[in-house]
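--- STAGE predict ---
source: upstream dedup step, 1 unique chain passed
mode: sequence only
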Amino acid sequence: MNIIAEIPDKASFQAYGSFVSVEPTQSGEGTESFTFWDKLCTFSLSQGSLGLVRSYPRVKPICSSLERHKESSEVLIPVMVPVAVICALSSARDENTVDRKTIKALVVSPGEALVLHPGVWHSAPYVHRETADTFVIFRNDTLRNDLIKVDFPPEERLSLSFETLED
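--- STAGE serialize ---
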């Protein structure tokens, strides 16, 4: 299955979580030195953990698995380079099965964030041409106690295309 990384919009991402960015029309609080925007997104998190994922470019990006966290939201914030994150919802019949009709790849640029609802299937960040760092925030015990992973057989793996980012 080939997936084209797309630029998300807030409305089309609502079932998966929140796409966070500051719109030029949003006013914030501040001084001459800074502007602060509060509550761009809210999510539940008790005793969180901040981590970092370093993603490396690959000639042909192939996604062979997705993961989800049933109890924790996950926040992904790229540092300097845009990344693509593959997301999907669970099947209506079985929450431990990916609904392949809902699979999408979303480009997240520096200054933006994805806030995934608990239970949303997702990949690690992928990059187009250069190595990228992405901050990851979720509940402190998530990797140890709340990591559900599905591996795709070779014929069902996802091929990622960055057509929307081509010069």
